[in-house]
Design a protein that fits this description.
elongated; 9 strands; about 200 residues; mainly beta
Length: about 200
C-alpha cells in the first residue's frame, strides 16, 4: 500500500511540476477494452500440503468498457504529461481501477490536428501485491476549438499482477507463506475517444 501511494504521489508531483511549464489541461476518455490473452503461473501448497504448479496462457477474447479522467500539462510544444485515474473491466467478473502517468509526443504540436503517440505506466489501486500497468499507443487529435480537443485513441495495454490463490478443494485463500509463485498477466487492446479542455 505504501509503495502504491508513493507511486501515485510521484505521478502527481511530475504533473504538478509540468503545469508550471505549460498550459494545464483536464480531460475525460471512454471506450472499449478487449482482453485478448491471459497468462498465468501459480505454484503453491494446498491445506493438505500438496504442491500444485499451474502455468500457461489462453486466448480469452472478452469485451469491456473503460473510462479515464485526467489532469495534466503541456511540458513543451510537442510533449504533454497527465495523471490519470480510471475504471475498466478486465475479464469476466473482474474490474480494475488504474492510476497511471500518460506521456504523449505530438510531432505536429500539442495544440494542432494530427497523429501523436502515447506511453502509459502505473498501477491499480485495488489489486493485492505488486501490480504493473503499461500501455503504448497512438492517437489522432482534432483541435476543435482553442479550448477543446477531441482525440481518437488506440493502444495496447499490459497488466501484470500477483492475484490471491484459492484452494481448489476447500475454496479457502492460500496463505502467503504457502505461495511460491503467483503471477498473472493480461494483454488487451483499447479503443477510445477523449475530450480535452
Amino acid at each position: 500500500m505504501i509503495k502504491r501511494l508513493a507511486a501515485i504521489s510521484a505521478i502527481l508531483m511530475l504533473v504538478s511540476g509540468a503545469a508550471f511549464a505549460g498550459g494545464f489541461r483536464t480531460g475525460l476518455e471512454w471506450g472499449s477494452s478487449t482482453l485478448l490473452v491471459h497468462g498465468y503461473h501459480y505454484n503453491y501448497f494446498t491445506a493438505e500440503r500438496y504442491r500444485i504448479n499451474e502455468e500457461g496462457s489462453r486466448f480469452v477474447p472478452h469485451f469491456n468498457a473503460y473510462v479515464n479522467a485526467y489532469a495534466g500539462a503541456n511540458v513543451s510544444d510537442n510533449l504533454s504529461a497527465a495523471a490519470c485515474i480510471g475504471f475498466s473491466g478486465l475479464e469476466e467478473g473482474k474490474r480494475i481501477f488504474p492510476v497511471f502517468l500518460r506521456t504523449s509526443w505530438h510531432p505536429k504540436g500539442v495544440d494542432n490536428d494530427g497523429l501523436y503517440f502515447t506511453i502509459d505506466i502505473g498501477s491499480c489501486m485495488e489489486r493485492p501485491g505488486t501490480t504493473l500497468l503499461g500501455a503504448v499507443g497512438t492517437a489522432y487529435r482534432i483541435a476543435a476549438l482553442s479550448w477543446l480537443d477531441i482525440d481518437f485513441l488506440l493502444n495496447f495495454r499490459f497488466l501484470s499482477t500477483s492475484p490471491d490463490i484459492f484452494d481448489p478443494d476447500t475454496g479457502e485463500k492460500i496463505k502467503a507463506e504457502d505461495i511460491r509463485v503467483s503471477s498473472a498477466s493480461y494483454y488487451s487492446i483499447n479503443f477510445g475517444i477523449a475530450v480535452n479542455f
